[in-house]
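Q&A FORM
Asked by: J.P.
Topic: structure of SRCR domain-containing protein

PROVIDED:
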Amino acid sequence: MALLFSLILAICTGPGLLDAQPSSHPFGGSLSRVRLVGGDHRCEGRVEVQRAGEWGTVCDDGWDEDDAAVVCRELGCGAVKKAISGTAYGPLTQEDQKIFVQEFKCNGMEESLSQCEREDFFNCNHEEDAGAVCGFPENVRLVDGPKRCQGRVEVKHQGQWGTVCKASWSFAATKVVCRQLGCGRAVLTRKCCNKATQGQGPIWLRKASCSGKESSLEECPAGVWEKSNCTHDDDMWVECEDPFELQLVGGDGRCAGRLEVLHKGQWGTVCDDGWGEAADRVVCRQLGCGQPLSPPTKFRRRFGPGAGRIWLDDVACSGKERSLEECPHRFWGRHNCNHAEDVSVVCAGKSWSRVHRDIMRGGEGWRSLLRCSPALLVLQGILVRHFSNNRNREETDNEPHTTDLLM
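REPLIED BY: S.T.
REPLY: Here is the structure written out as tokens.
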């Protein structure tokens, strides 16, 4: 029984958590700065705070959009889009980097994180780093298109929206716009539009060029926006791919199930040819669902086969990618599979370490432990069968009957 408890506890807590120690910094020490690290631009990434000249991370306990909104406001990054938990922004380059804050308790109206109530002593690890995705202050948009990531380019200058003349535009600038708007890969830029969908108002021309690597148009080489001599016949149209999305379906929560990816507006499955633990890690990281578990094949089949398109095959991840999109694979839609080979993934979930702390502090114990993640239903089925088969022997022990605890 002790061995069994240790096994489940290890799964729920992840590596290193049992050795976590309180921060060496005094409680209530001042936080001087905040930054977002590891994202596609300065307004997205892992939250890091500075104390006494040193940068440290923030544990994701209680981390929500109220907390993330304060980060976005403090950085001048516009409205919050999403609060992130887990390892979505990849491993730290310095694994020994300190964790400064256990939990922020912001109401969402503060001007900076330093104004929020917080707990400075921590009992977590870097698998639980908090993150945030903010929107840049809106100064570019795509309008009158069939989707959010397609349309006529408009930029905001001196508080006024206007179109962009083809004379100032390039495919590199299109790449920047797609990235800034959180869309996928740049696909097309062309002259826009018929008379019915032409823009109105000023036509802005920028005397500058982008390399295509910038996070926003504001980062393109210095230049000025000015009214041009173009007409709206010269307005520019941009098309980006839809943002890459994935989901786990058919399970008991969002962190376990059959893997599906979104392509061309349609959800489809992934074939298990070449799939391995490294790919599991990428999926769990991208979803903010902690570490992958390795349940028996029989358990994975409980999620059932998918239907419709099979989008990916021969996916070959190293395990270090931030997104499944970065892993090599066959071209979209090319495969030699059927839905009996659909990939399923089971992740530990993000609440594992909080359960461990509850147990260590005299919380609900076994019941709390077994709620640490929907994915632990893997163990539930295995353990119920094991202890049912050994009921007579277990009833002679002094420990509580595990079958009852698991149900």
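FOLLOW-UP: Residues 352-406 form one domain.
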